[in-house]
Amino acid sequence: MTNYKPISDKDGEILVKTARKVVSEFLKSNNKMKLDSEFEKSFSFNSGVFVTLNDPSGLRGCIGYPLPDKKLYNALEDAAIAAATEDPRFPKVSSEELDKITFEVTVLTPPEEIKVEDPLNYPSNIQVGTDGLIVKFGFSSGLLLPQVPIEYSWNAEEFLGHTCEKAGLQNDIWKNSQIKVLKFQGVIFKEESSNGKVVPVKL
To answer: H helices of 43-155, where?
Structure first.
């Protein structure tokens, strides 16, 4: 990452609160808000990021950028709006819903390919609770964030299988020597309640 800096708890709070402001403004006006110049300056390094929205029934939207192709301030704004309005699994979020939704932001490290001589060694190179996964095979690609296997109590092999399924592939395709498996880490911050205190998430 260009000029990457560690994400502090204060940074995490600012990122989550900004994600909420961006979505709130977009749902009201259908326009992107002008980001504070100090915010842009603080997060002007390239980074992958995901924004996750949850309501009392569970996941309400999750969109992001796995690769550090954008400045973090720009990626956060785009991911937040997309999570609220473009996740194909859910209808668009309404302004009235926002007081029931909690925001979560995951800032990613650059993905690194897991190199193994035998695909059966992939699970032993994955640390559940630390690593997120990307599976690539042909034109198919799937990603799951580090917090997902914790939520579902998956082991490394199950995590791999579900990441394959996310790519639209068979869950045991990771045993194929033609597949690529990449891992990354994430720093996670979320609201404890809707528009409430922002806390770091320890997996």
So the answer is: 72-85, 147-152
pTM of the model: 0.87
Question: CATH number of the domain at 112-184, please?
Answer: 3.30.1490.150
> Alpha carbon 24 to chain centroid distance?
20
Per-residue pLDDT tens over the stretch 77-99: 999 999 999 999 999 999 999 99
Kindly report the CATH number that applies to the domain delimited by 9-109: 3.30.700.20
Structure tokens at 2: 């260009």
Under 8 Å CB-to-CB from 184, ≥6 apart: which residues? 48, 66, 108, 109, 110, 111, 112, 131, 132, 134
Q: What are the residue boundaries of the structural domains of the chain, listed by start? A: 9-109, 112-184
Q: What is the pLDDT of residues 5-22, one digit of tens each?
A: 689 999 999 999 999 999
To the nearest 10°, the Cα dihedral for 15, 35, 46, 191? 10
Quick: pLDDT tens for 44-56.
Answer: 999 999 999 999 9
